[in-house]
């Protein structure tokens, strides 16, 4: 039995852009679902589970950034912002709120397809190699449900971006991970916006892991070099 192709949700109020993206994605083997308004998209989420979402920020009925943030905290889907807002601060804000990537209009549809493939390929490869649940220092991370469980049994949801970063650390425990390696692993674009987004995600992970920012026990900063995850890790 073969599984269905990944489902990509497209939220943009311009029909031509939705059609352009849908044509490119379907030609590449994906399924698509298009929406012109946030309310339609949110209603559809009650009956479908997309693998990735393409979100325009200039929506007629909802603040796009608020929607991105809500999706990042409640959904395991990869989130790629597609927007005409080209300022660095807009990109930084989008990534800080939980988006995995940011594409500026006008764009080449082939680039969007490539970015989606990069976002979806890595978790599938890692799942086949390592399983979906990691255990470390009394914690467990369930990458099927995007859920972090503490030693006290308290459950905390992970955004797709946070889960992707945590998995990068768990795949290489007790090894230095440089900023360049993080860039390659997380599929970002070099620049201040991605650097700041990485710092924010690490800070959020530390908070969810109950870390003391002045003396972290699990994610240690090696200034000028990168980061080391200090715990042993088991997979099942």
Descriptive terms for the model:
single chain, 236 residues, alpha/beta, five-stranded parallel beta sheet, five-stranded antiparallel beta sheet, 8 helices, 13 strands
Q: Any overview of this molecule?
A:
The protein is α/β, with parallel strands linked by helices and 236 residues long. Helix content is 42%, strand content 22%. The chain contains 8 helices and 13 strands. The chain has helices at residues 15-27, 38-44, 64-74, 88-96, 109-130, 160-171, 179-186, 192-208, and strands at 7-11, 31-35, 52-56, 78-83, 101-104, 133-136, 139-142, 147-149, 155-157, 176-178, 219-222, 226-229, 234-235. A 5-stranded parallel β-sheet has the order 2-1-3-4-5, sandwiched between helices. The longest helix is centred in the middle third of the chain and has 22 residues, at 109-130. It is globular, with a radius of gyration of 18 Å. The relative contact order is 0.11.
